[in-house]
Specification:
The protein has 500 residues and is α+β, with helices and mostly antiparallel strands. The protein folds into 4 domains: 3-92, no CATH class; 145-236, Immunoglobulins (Immunoglobulin-like, Sandwich); 243-325, Sandwich (Immunoglobulin-like); 348-498, Muramoyl-pentapeptide Carboxypeptidase, domain 1. The protein has helices spanning 3-22, 33-43, 53-61, 63-67, 69-74, 82-86, 94-98, 100-104, 106-110, 112-116, 118-122, 124-127, 130-134, 353-358, 367-376, 386-398, 409-419, 435-440, 449-458, 468-480, 491-498; strands spanning 145-146, 149-154, 159-162, 167-168, 173-180, 187-191, 196-200, 205-216, 224-225, 229-236, 243-247, 252-253, 258-264, 270-275, 287-289, 293-296, 302-312, 315-325. Strands 2, 5, 8, 9 and 10 form a 5-stranded mixed beta sheet that branches. Strands 12-18-17-14-15 form a 5-stranded mixed beta sheet, with no helix packed on it. Strand 17 and strand 18 form a beta hairpin. Helix 1 packs across helix 2 (33-43) and helix 16 runs antiparallel to helix 20 (468-480).
Length: 500
């Protein structure tokens, strides 16, 4: 039995005694009855409060009331003494028996704060902030960062750089680097295993690359990505070697041997020469020599010219000289008779004029197509397909025509002239380009007379610079001849060009 309940029973006994003493004669036949009746009467609403006045006086005189003092001592003051609870009017009121605050206020039973405020149950920060959701394991993650950089180098001299040196790591270890972007005329090579970037060019130019680094943090599944870095590329034209004549033959001499010496500034170089280059020739194969002094022998009587070219990397310079070889006391040689013009190999009427006016193009078949194929250098199967069209376009570019791949009146006239040998082009042989250059491969960025030889074959403008147009023409030529269209003139491509 709980202490509050015991106190209420004791208090009820005291009240019963008081009622019994104050109601003499009212319940004389039943001595025990007044205890229960008194308790019940106190709760009845019809019992007048004024009739209970006799109870107050006997209650003070009765010893049993005084004997009940220990009950008053046992009751806590805060909950109410037995006297307060013992009057009939006091006993049984909602306040005396227990107000909502006595029985348990909402705060006693458990206020929202007691049961658990939102903060106790778990605020959004407790359940997981966005940072916690990105990284459920609670590992601190700092992504890597990369820097922008300008890279300047000299054409003809490759530049290498370790991109890992431009990466600032966060919490993770470097996983990989991606490189992309328009590099322009600059050749780019990137090794993802070593993160080494290689840049090269054969002429000045600019370009732009972008790169992103990826890192992996231990305990985190996702890779961390850096910001995008920008690499500004600039290739500076290679300086031309400084050359001059140190010794030449006399302007007029009877010697059939000529000796030349060229002054060349310090540094490695390659020197070659061409004697009696036809003024309308687009290119010729130079004779390469060791050192800077050489002789030309077996010269005939007459006027001679020589061009000397010195190359260093992508830079080159040239010298020209002319002199006369005369005979001592010898009579002038009679003029050679003028030869009769040779019969044309290809007649303008070989293809009907109406067919030429309509234009021969891809899809055409027949002997007219085979005639064109023999001149532009593809298999003469009489079918105007993709290979024939590419060869026609290359021919048109070489002769300053619109490269549309259609053989109309202008293109046909140029084909007839080319077939009859009216184009002033020097014959190409296996030695027209030095074997060492072919072994290395001639590709975009190269310059010099060897490039001019290739340009003449593939139908590009023979300006001696292997640029994007020459590369496209080489690829088209390779495709039309069943070769790998990589745009590089190596051993196989050069062999096919010589044998065409």
């Amino acid at each position: 039995m709980s202490a509050p309940r015991a106190r209420r029973l004791v208090a009820a006994g005291v009240i019963a005694t008081v009622l019994t003493a104050g109601s003499v004669g009212a319940a004389a036949a039943t001595p025990e009855g007044p205890v229960e009746t008194g308790v019940e009467a106190s709760a009845g609403p019809e019992t007048p409060v004024e009739e209970q006045a006799p109870v107050d006086a006997p209650a003070e005189e009765e010893a049993p009331v005084e004997d009940a003092a220990p009950v008053e001592d046992a009751a806590p003051v805060d909950e109410g003494t037995p006297v307060d609870e013992g009057t009939p009017s006091d006993e049984g009121t909602p306040v005396d028996e227990g107000t909502p605050s006595d029985e348990g206020t909402p705060a006693d039973e458990g206020t929202p704060a007691d049961e658990g405020t939102p903060a106790d149950e778990g605020t959004p920060a407790d359940e997981g902030t966005p940072a916690d959701e990105d990284d459920p394991d609670g590992v601190e993650v700092v992504p890597p960062s990369v820097q922008d950089k300008k890279l300047t180098f000299t054409a003809g001299e490759p530049l290498t750089i370790d991109l890992a040196e431009l990466v600032t790591l966060g919490t993770g270890a470097l996983e990989s680097i991606d490189v992309y972007g328009p590099a322009g005329d600059i050749q780019v090579g990137f090794d993802p295993e070593t993160n080494i970037l290689t840049l090269s060019a054969w002429e000045g130019g600019t370009g732009t690359l972008h790169y992103v680094a990826y890192a992996r943090t231990e305990g985190v599944e996702e890779l961390q990505e850096s910001n995008e870095g920008t690499l500004s590329l600039e290739a500076v034209d290679a300086p031309k070697p400084q050359i001059s004549w140190a010794a030449t033959p006399a302007a007029s001499t009877t010697s059939t041997t000529a000796r030349f010496t060229v002054n060349v500034d310090e540094g490695d170089y390659a020197l070659g020469y061409v004697v009696d280059l036809h003024p309308e020739a687009q290119s010729a194969s130079p004779v390469m020599v060791e050192g800077n002094t050489f002789e030309v022998t077996g010269l005939s009587v007459g006027r001679h010219t020589i061009r000397v070219v010195v190359e260093r990397g992508a830079g080159w310079s040239a010298l020209d000289y002319a002199w006369d070889v005369v005979a001592v006391g010898a009579p002038a040689a009679p003029a050679a008779p003028v030869a009769a013009p040779a019969a044309p190999v290809l007649s303008p009427d070989a293809i009907p004029a109406s067919v030429v006016r309509a234009g021969l193009r891809r899809g055409a078949v027949g002997e007219s197509v085979a005639i064109i194929q023999r001149v532009v250098g593809v298999e003469a199967d009489g079918r105007f397909g993709a290979a024939t069209r590419a060869a026609v376009i290359a021919f048109q570019r070489a002769h300053g025509l619109v490269p549309d791949g259609i053989v109309g009146p202008l293109t046909w006239a140029a084909i007839v002239d080319a077939a009859n040998g009216k184009s002033a082009s020097a014959p190409v042989t296996a030695t027209s380009i030095p074997a060492a250059q072919i072994a290395r491969g001639i590709s975009r960025g190269a310059v010099g007379s060897s490039v001019s030889v290739i340009q003449r074959i593939v139908g590009a403008n023979p300006d001696g610079r292997f640029g994007p147009r020459t590369q496209a023409a080489v690829r088209a030529w390779q495709r039309s001849h069943g070769l790998v269209a990589d745009g590089i003139v190596g051993r196989l491509t050069w062999a096919a060009m010589v044998a065409r």
